[in-house]
Amino acid sequence: MIRRATAIIRRLYELPPEEVDHQVQRRLSGKPGSLPISYRALRPSRPYDFLSRYQRIPACVAGWEDLDFTSKDVLEIGAGPLAFYGPLSLFLGARSYTSIDPDSAIQPFADPRLIVAYLKPMYSDLSALYGERMRLPEFLAAARERVMVRPVSALDARDVGPVDIVLSNSCLEHVFPSQESLAHISSLMRPGARHLHLMDFGNHLPTALPFDDMYDLSREEYWARHRKTIKLARLDDVHQAFLSAGLDPIVAPVAVVPPEDRFEPGSREWALGSGQDIWTRTALFSGTRA
Questions:
Q1: pLDDT, tens digit, for every residue of 225-237?
Q2: In CA terms, which of 12, 111, 133, 171 is 20 to 30 Å from 233?
Q3: Which of 117, 112, 115, 122 shows the shortest CA–CA distance to 87?
Q4: Distance between CA atoms of 93 and 91, rounded to whole angstroms?
Q5: Omega of the bond prior to 32 within 30 degrees of 0, cis?
Q6: Beta-carbon neighbour count of residue 124 at 10 Å?
Q7: How many independent structural domains does the chain possess?
Q8: What's the N-to-C CA distance of the chain in angstroms?
Q9: Which ranges in the chain belong to alpha helices (H)?
Q10: pLDDT band at 126 (very low <50, low <70, confident <90, very high)
Q11: Do residue 24 and residue 161 come from a single domain?
């Protein structure tokens, strides 16, 4: 209990003040009938929409084949309060699903209101897309009983694996220490296991452009101003980290700042002549472990 409380306090210290306020208000909301989860997160088609889009892009780039979840053990990094890909994975036949997320509840679907607001609409949507692969009571039981959440960091996940599929959505840019964590995640994967990760290289702030205030400061200066919540790694850095972890990914830039919106960085660390790709905002990393 003490270890868990310490982890929560450390996490709150690392978050930007506005995010701390959001998290506290979300959890302390006492409005009758309200759920402490954002409206966006409650959209039941969201996991399918993201997965189908994320698979289509590497398919166009390098002939990626859609993931087959049948009888697979699935691991997700930073799945969020609703175990993002969990219910979808189980509907598609996964044998098990585990989320590693230090900020998530161990039982994400303990609140019965989520059955009506989220799981039942998701079941209807998935049944329309794939056919009725299981009955509704079986799906609800799977979501409640077979979605496993480990509230620890990626590096501290020692009772997980081996797994066949590893997923994440805008999470790896927040994982520290990055190289060691990615190497540990790779060690949890069986030979032939597949991975699909989207990374957001932007500033994660409500600014006009995704790199505002980033390239005028060194990494240390940026962390001192905004706290160390994102790695500030660039596309080439992450690609090399995957390779060092024994993973040779398909790299597919998704959102790139157009030339007319680019500017001369104010910090030498990000100088245009450095050869770094500093204008990719989001990219997908996908592949198979040897």
A1: 999 999 999 999 8
A2: 12
A3: 122
A4: 5
A5: no
A6: 13
A7: 2
A8: 39
A9: 2-14, 17-28, 46-62, 86-91, 113-114, 120-130, 136-145, 178-187, 219-226, 235-244
A10: very high
A11: no
Q: State residue 229 phi and psi, 5-degree precision.
A: -110, -15
- Give the mean pLDDT of the chain: 86
Q: What angle do CA 69, 72, 74 make, to 5 degrees?
A: 85
The answer as to whether 157 is a domain residue is yes
Q: Closest Cα to residue 90, out of 50, 47, 38?
A: 47
CATH code of 48's domain: 3.40.50.150
d(C-alpha 190, C-alpha 201), whole Å: 28
DSSP letter for 116, please: I
Per-residue model confidence (pLDDT) at position 77: 95
Q: Name residue 100's beta-bridge partners.
A: 77, 150
State pTM to two decimals.
0.86
What single DSSP character describes residue 115? I
Q: What angle do CA 27, 77, 100 make, to 5 degrees?
A: 65
Residue 274 clears pLDDT 80, i.e. is over it: no
Mean of the pLDDT values across residues 45-66?
96
Shared-domain flag, residues 187 and 159: yes
Amino acid at 11: R
Beta bridge partners of 198: 169, 284
Domain that holds residue 219: 43-288
Distance CA 60, CA 107 (A): 37
CA atoms within 13 A on the CB side of 102: 21
Place of tokens 């993201």: 50
Q: Is 35 a residue whose pLDDT tops 70?
A: no
User: Does residue 4 sit within a domain?
Assistant: yes
Residue type, 109: F
Sheet holding 189-200, edge to edge: 147-150, 96-100, 73-77, 163-169, 189-200, 280-288, 250-256
